[in-house]
Amino acid sequence: MKKLRNLAIATGVGAALFLLLAYLEVSTPGLDLGATKYVLPMVLSSGLFAGLNARAGNRRVPVANDARKAELLGFPPRDGCGWVVMVRDKATVASSLGFDVAVDNKVITQLMPKRFTMIALPSGTHQLFADVAGAPGASAIAPLDVAIRPGEILIFAIRASMGLMRTSLRLDPAADSPAMRRALARMQLVEPEGQGS
Fold first, then answer.
1. Which of 26, 64, 82, 185 is a good FRET partner for 174, with 20 to 30 A between their CA atoms?
2. Domain limits, the chain
3. Whether 144 contacts 72, CB under 8 Å
4. How confident is the model at residue 197 (pLDDT cuts 50, 70, 90)?
5. Which helix (H) or strand (E) element contains residue 57?
6. Helix axis angle, 36-55 to 2-27, nearest 10°
7. Biggest alpha carbon distance in the chain?
8. Rounded to whole angstroms, how far apart are CA atoms 25 and 149?
């Protein structure tokens, strides 16, 4: 149902742009837009349709209160476990789209800009993944294998770059520094599903 609605919106915008360009061409002496009046509305409506579908994948996720966030940012020791932090720190491209975060092929939460999640994982090798919610195949990120040692803290920033028809994601390692800790304290913490206290 949402896809049909999104298609109707995108088609309507494309048609309106075509009519506007055709009117400008007819009413402006010497103006010849050629194929532009056909191609531009098609490109715009296709991009809009893809963007609306991706945005439809957004969902509400609860955020931790300040006390819970402060508790977890102390990275309490857990037997045989290390911590992985996934940060979506900048509201730049794709800021209206939620990013699904997965560990070992299981989606653990969704992040909007200026939010982060953290999860205690048993020592060993684990696979991290991020994708644009509701847009299968739209992101180009490759799953990242990480080796975790007990007590270790690994931080990764999810970065995005947007093309005409797709959003490409990557996971950039970030240092566990005082500046990063301060940045995390200013963001909202989204706890992984099922981890809680």
1. 64
2. 2-55, 66-189
3. no
4. very low
5. none
6. 160
7. 77
8. 66
More confident call, 157 vs 96? 157
CATH number of 66-189: 2.60.40
Show the 3-state SS of 148-178.
ECCCCEEEEEEEEEECCCCEEEEEEEECCCH
CA angle 143, 145, 150 (to 5 degrees): 140
Cα 96 from Cα 170, distance rounded (Å) = 17
The answer, as to whether pTM is greater than 0.90, is no
Q: Give the tens place of pLDDT for each residue, 138-190.
A: 555 678 999 999 999 999 999 877 655 566 788 999 999 999 999 999 999 99
Q: How far is CA 102 from CA 9, 117, 121, in A?
A: 31, 11, 13
Amino acid at 14: G
Model pLDDT, residue 6: 46
